[in-house]
Design a protein that fits this description.
- It is built from 2 helices and 20 strands.
- It has helices at about 1-10, 410-459; strands at about 25, 40, 80-95, 110-115, 120, 130-135, 140-160, 170-175, 180-190, 190-195, 200, 210-215, 215-220, 250, 260-280, 295-300, 310-315, 325-345, 350-360, 380.
- The strands form 3 sheets. Strands 1, 2, 3, 4, 5, 6, 7, 8 and 20 form a 9-stranded mixed beta sheet that branches.
- The longest helix has about 45 residues, at about 410-459.
- The protein is extended and about 115 Å long.
Amino acid sequence: MLFLLLLLLPAESRSQTDPAQCRYALGMQDGSIADDDLTASSQWYESTGPKYARLGRDEADGAWCPAGPLHPSDEQFLQVDLRSLCFVTLVGTQGRSGGGAGKEFVRIYRLDYSRDGDRWISWKSRTGQKVIQGNSNVYDVVLKDLRPPVIARYLRIIPVTELTSTVCMRMELYGCSWHDGLLSYSAPEGQIMAVPGYPIAYLNDSTYDGFLERRLLFGGLGQLTDGLLGMDDFLQTHQTRTWQGYDYVGWRNDSLGPGYVEMDFLFDKQRNFSSMKVHCNNMFSRGVKIFRKVSCLFKPRLISDWEPEPVGITTVLDDKNPSARFVTVPLGNRVGKELRCQFSFADTWMMFSEISFQSNMEVIKPRVIPVHTRLPSPLSTADPEPELSTTLQSQETTPPFMVSWPVDRPDDGSTSVLIGCLVTIILLLLVIIVLILWCQYVRKVLEKVQFSLLLLHVL
């Protein structure tokens, strides 16, 4: 019982992948992304090929340039293979310098992404906007937040132009490894809460990038993996220009028949699962509670059957604290490539804002590095949506991000060693100072004693 209570205690927890911290350079500028991982639909010359599209570097003719002038109807692209699934939160772009002779840059672009290299998805903002504002000159680096973030292995930057013109660009991607390894989840479509006397709450998965058939979502990822946690009051939201209930995906008990929500989770490879974390709303005064129990089945391989023995827990319901919370579900180190979980209702409504998985399998760390290089000044930075834009000069903040700025990768090991060395040096200095003061004190005492003896001898 105590164990279950500890699992359900509300806390200021973060999701497994925090978009505000997942902002490391993925390797364009420093070369960690190899030349062979960069391809393009075309190139003007060999010296303007995709391998020269590295932010902050001025090699050969200084950038990637697609062949010939770009027409409004053309679709040229620069493609990056990250070699593994990454959680991409930020894109940096720059024009062609070419040793001072370059004049070309990309004013507007689109972003396509893929997790398998076959199915390509066009990124769009939370308000449905597909185009992203780029550069206004060849020198400044412009950083754009991706809201929602992208979970992908392959990305394509697609320049867009309204008039026929020559375009060139350099770029960098920022983010971190997608440790969950989740390729897709399926679930019933989110529903609308319309209660007389209260605002209407739209609880659909608005950023889901898969398919919708017969009110079932499948083959994609969405709000349950975007790293953003819903608030205690599900009508409130972190986002601007969105509707009430936006941060949650929710279902009504009597609309689903069996009294539970069934979700399937497909992963990139077979994994050994230790736990699952589900961020739930618990605003019981509105008929919303965490799930009553959950039961999960495992499939070791896609061609195999579901294993007969489920794993799950029965939760301890909380009718006193309405705070949203993570519920941790131990998965007993079961092995699988696909999971099927049934979440049973405890009240009229059930709402989730985030689901993440923890695995004790060896996970290869991403090719992510800190940003140690100096970017050209001035450095403009903005969000694809104007009202969410931030600049380095103003340092304005827009929740849930602080500023559109890459972060240095923390080095906990070396930092601890450095702190330990500094503390040791300080303690040694303090000991030396105490010894010096003590020696001075003893010397003065001895001088006084000698003076007293000399005076007595004279008398």
